[in-house]
Amino acid sequence: MKKKVLGAVAAAAVATLALTACGSGGGSSADSAKGEISYWLWDSNQLPAYQQCADDFHKANPDITVKITQTGWDDYWGKITNGMASGTAPDVFTDHLSKFPDFIKTKQLVPLDDAVSTDKVDLTQYNDGLANLWVGQDGKRYGLPKDWDTVGLFYNKKMAADAGLSPAQMASLSWNPQDGGSYEKAIAHLTVDKNGKRGDEAGFDKNNVAVFGLGLPGSDAENAGQTQWSFLSATTGWSATDKTPWGSHFNYDDKRVQDTIAWWASLAQKGYMPKLETTVGANAPDAFGAGKAAINANGDWMIGQYKGYKGIDLGIAPTPTGVDGKNASMFNGLADSIWAGTKKKDASIKWVEYLGSSACQDVVASKAVVFPAIKTSTDKAAAAFAAKGIDVSAFTEHVKDKSTFLLPITDNAAKVAGIMKPAMDAVIAGKSPASSLTDANNQVNALFSK
Amino acid sequence: MTTISSPKAGARRRPFNWRRTSAWVLLALAIAVSVLPFYWVLRTAFSTNGSLAANSASILPADFNLGAFKRVFGLQTASEAIAEGGSGASINFFQYLLNSLLFSSITTAGAVFFSSMAAYAFARLRWKGRDGVFTLFLGTMLVPPIFTALPNFLLVKNLGLLNSMLGLVLPYLFMTPFAIFFMRQFFLNMSREVEEAAMLDGAKHWRIFFQIVMPNAAAPIATLALLTFMGQWNEYFWPLLVGTSEESRVLTVGLGVFKSQSPQGAPDWSGLMAATLISALPVLILFSIFGKKIVNSIGFSGTK
Amino acid sequence: MTTLTKHPDPELSATGRSRKSRKSQKRGKPGAGFRGIGDLKIALLFIFPAMIGFVLFYLVPTIRGIYLSFTEYSILGDPEWIGVKNYQQIAKDPLFWNALGVTSEYVVINIVLQTVLALGLAILMHRVAKSTLIRGALLLPYLMANVIAALLWFWMLDYQIGIVNQFIEWVGLPRVAFFGSEQWAIPTQALINTWRHMGYTALLLFAGLQAIPNTVYEAASIDGSKAVSTFWRITLPLLRPVLALVLVVTVIGSFQVFDTVAVTTQGGPINATRVLQYYIYQRAFNEQDFGYGSALAVILFLILAIVAFIQMKFLRGNQSDLD
Fold it and tell me: ipTM of this model?
């Protein structure tokens, strides 16, 4: 009896469930070019610039209002994925190269090819290579570039001067994986312990360091060492994947990258860089701002943050030259993509095109927060930075000299990060040798062999 | 110290016993450990973020300032916030507060009411299979929430209710095994006489339940509602999965987000502590009003 | 998980007096069954809403969860049946075994610390202080959400500027990377949880202590029993049912540690705090592998069931020596 009753209730419940489940779901009405569209981004520093773009856009298109929502990076992607599943994702959002392959795979993005050809968007106006990053394996375009970034060395000018390092010297450091070259020498010399002894002096107490030569922002396995070690390993001729974009085989088992990582991890053991365990909950730029680190390698989107620290005379140097005698930087760019579930496709396309036009990118340039994707806007941004007293040539020269390489663009990015992060952390923390990355690499490649 | 000092304590009591003294010292220590962190939250919340590092050991707020609270409530401009060490990001705390209130009240009302009904059926009505069904219900207490959370997430997604308040409250709305168990226990102990009298007058079960049983159960229902409300207020995992939109994000989830808002994840400690304080406030208020009830209900009804 | 004190026999009160058919008033074996349908119709109405909740959000999800564990499924696609492949992978997944290890470490530290401290506090309260105010103060941490407790301690235990490390340094010891070092990460999580639950557990045990009749103690003191031996010979055995219940609940709760990890270390450093539930969350929601996540959840469920079963058997929690 009991079972019967229960079974009946369960059956009824499941039936209603199935019915409602069928009833819900898509069915977008006519693609309207009117109304309010939502736009998400994660960098709060850029919010004012894009808010102004949105206001200008609304003036030019009174029918369309753009509602901007900013959400921190950690939260951003979960919210987007969840939103896609629930039908509440934003119409347009700032997209990242490491994330968009998964979105293409699950058909969550609107191809922009038709719009680009009908509206005659000039793809050559962008810095070379940026526009093509956003073409998927299916040959379709899923984003219009909005900005680009490279990596440089932020350093404390006063500390460098005290250590006898001139800006010219800082700008011409060199590196190799064996002894670290003049890059390591500078880092060691800039490291000072509690007794005032420098890192390269006898009697240096590596367990009581007051100022670290190099800051540690974490191992950043998620973005293949973008701001930590990628600019070094690239000079050895190593590349993260078999091909870029759309690689399907990772190369963390290569001795060249393992040597680079081993060298980098050794800085922490020598006391020139904070130990990974002391950086939980702390933050490398803030430590730099508090005078606890002399050099921070970081991306150009952090210029505003570094410049904002009071009492710090900020110097910016290009990444050190490496094994091949040149310097290098990862070249990454963001784009704006349209979610496939949007109910206001036409309005969204208009907004994306506006974001990708010089009208908006010049506004972004004038705020001097990042480098817009359009060449002429990039120059304007450099001028805006210069007007603030910041020399950004360390970042722009990579683009001019074409000394850049790309972030690995592959499928399974989240799973790759899930495997690589602990593995990389273990090496940086000195718990495992760099050769242990081979094992992680095998796990990563197994993801692609399915 | 007051409540009915039992005779056995008096019997064993000796004046100026070192044991007694050390017992009090230990107890005081435990209370200090329990309560002092809250002072530190207060102290940090009223500090200026930028001054925390330099005055990390000062007992009083470092650079007394209400900026953290303004930041939490979005009363500061982005540039002011950044200048004080905030992220400049907008966190919609008022909205989260409202969401938390809605989520906790709706689920509490639903769960307590429907569970009481079921508990009545389990305690006072005679029907075949009653004990079997009750055991089955009780068995769900052993099911780890994460186990049902994955499919429930999918269910809510299929219903198109992801990121909505309705999707958030649904799994808790109809019952919680604990509420049924708690109320059933009370009903079992309740005197039958009034009910029987009403029955003889020809009253139906519905009327008996609503007019006699429920009013008589006001006290345990209040206790249960309090416990449920506090539990729901503190809930994190389910809202984390289902409520990511502004309309459905609750305070606990918002707090976690607040922590990772600034560029590269440096916590805005004073802002975070101010937010923590505000999030804890409703429960603290409830506790200060119903403290005695809550304290005394534990033991009779401990869960989790 | 409740009613540590009052536990009347439900059968007695339910069957004791029947209303509809006074004829069938029989007292035989409890639960011997009712004749006819009794109040079935009205009872169904009463339990209907709860039944919806039970079926929709407990029963069906349980079945669906088991089904999903045999599939490969990302939330934006359709599930694909792959048999026991997920389970085979789990068997050789080092992160799963790591998660099991660190979760167990957490459970052990947590349980030992929490139970000992709570028992001590309960006895202290029972002996010297029964004030509601004191009990309220001890209960305060429990009223905070896990998330709040975690953030509060994340701040106080911060390596650079946390007050605890200031104190440690002031005493003359080296700073401790509570959240950053592999050795400390799990004990720190357990300490946070102990802080939050200590007072609450103490109150539960306190209630248990109060339920022990004074006559037992009086008899013991007449026998000349010392305090310590009274504790071991009388208090502890009589407290056993309560203690057993508390232990079962805390162990089961501890196995599901998530909130504090999620807002502080997020599985790190390296894999030191990648506890089971966090790992499940990571696989299912960050990496969109719902099938694998479900399989992990099934295993967690089985572990909990086994642990609860063993505990109940071992502690004979449903019987009291008092009877």
Answer: 0.84
